[in-house]
Amino acid sequence: MLSSPVNSTSRNINLGPSGNPHAKPTDFDFLKVIGKGSFGKVFLAKRRHDEKYYAVKVLQKKVILNRKEQKHIMAERNVLLKNVKHPFLVGLHYSFQTKDKLYFVLDFVNGGELFFHLQKERTFPEPRAKFYIAEMASALGYLHSLNIVYRDLKPENILLDHEGHIILTDFGLCKEGISQTDTTNTFCGTPEYLAPEVLRKQPYDNTVDWWCLGSVLYEMLFGLPPFYSRDTHEMYDNILHKPLALRPGASSTAWSLLQGLLEKDGQHRLGSRDDFVSIRAHSFFSSINWDDLVQKKIPPPFTPRVVSICFLPSKQKNQKKLNILQSRVLLCA
């Protein structure tokens, strides 16, 4: 176990026990930066002893301490440790720490962000959107079964693996200990996907994830989130008060699901009574065999064109692509 008391001089904060106390940074060759966030970077790294590739998230303890973000970092680590067995959640192999940094050794998922594919194609055909939404719903239902609310479902946090299956990543905004009857009131999320009850700063429960699921489905079908506006205040007003507008190009079952998920009153939203059981029973998913889905027996409708690791571009060199929607900033207060 790597643990030490908080030391104001060294900033060597205790971030909990490590899954691998013998691990160290020199175990890896850090090849490329493939992600960059507020607290550190994500590297493509090759582990020297077996030459396997991983995504290694490296967080600066000093930045975490200065921003008082220990609880979010530990929430991410705890969720990762709990959920390594679910097929649609990114897996944590182990974590370790040095005096100045915390390391998460994660699955390397190389099919690209759903956000990238959606920006490239603008919209997805309904069968493709249905496949992705079903896999997302399965992952969210699993988190809810562990009393965890995800709170930040959006295309940027959804990756595709090399076969084309969904992988949810970035668990920094997860809230633990929230059962079907529990609530929280943290103002948290990304503007385009905030549920009305979060905007109103009312107590909310895991149904906020079903609102986000509806927002992502709408965006995949029509190209933008359902209440989007460049003016954030107008967008918030739309989320709170504007009715969901019926648009051509989607089936009646798709609209029924969207109306259920994007119900402004969380107590009447689809999933408010039986959570994932209600979602998977909806007629939109009548063609989905859920057992086959979780076992990855259903062929994905799209196979990403995976770039060779040798030629994988640095995320720093692709900021134009990654900053297409500048408004998608994280909110947490």
Automatic annotation (TrEMBL):
Renumbered residue ranges of the record's region Disordered: 1-20
EC numbers: 2.7.11.1
Domain AGC-kinase C-terminal: residue ranges: 286-333
Enzyme class: transferase
Positions annotated to bind ATP: K57
InterPro entries (alphabetical): AGC-kinase_C, Kinase-like_dom_sf, Prot_kinase_dom, Protein_kinase_ATP_BS, Ser/Thr_kinase_AS
Reaction catalyzed: L-threonyl-[protein] + ATP = O-phospho-L-threonyl-[protein] + ADP + H(+); L-seryl-[protein] + ATP = O-phospho-L-seryl-[protein] + ADP + H(+)
Domain Protein kinase: start-end pairs: 28-285
GO molecular function: ATP binding; protein serine/threonine kinase activity
One Pfam assignment: Pkinase
Feature: compositional bias, Polar residues: 1-17
Keyword terms: ATP-binding, Kinase, Nucleotide-binding, Phosphoprotein, Serine/threonine-protein kinase, Transferase
Superkingdom of the organism of origin: Eukaryota
Record's function text: Protein kinase that may play an important role in cellular stress response. May be involved in the regulation of processes such as cell survival, neuronal excitability and renal sodium excretion.
PANTHER family for this protein: RIBOSOMAL PROTEIN S6 KINASE
Similarity remark: Belongs to the protein kinase superfamily. AGC Ser/Thr protein kinase family.
Protein name (Swiss-Prot/TrEMBL): Serine/threonine-protein kinase Sgk1
Organism this protein belongs to: Sparus aurata
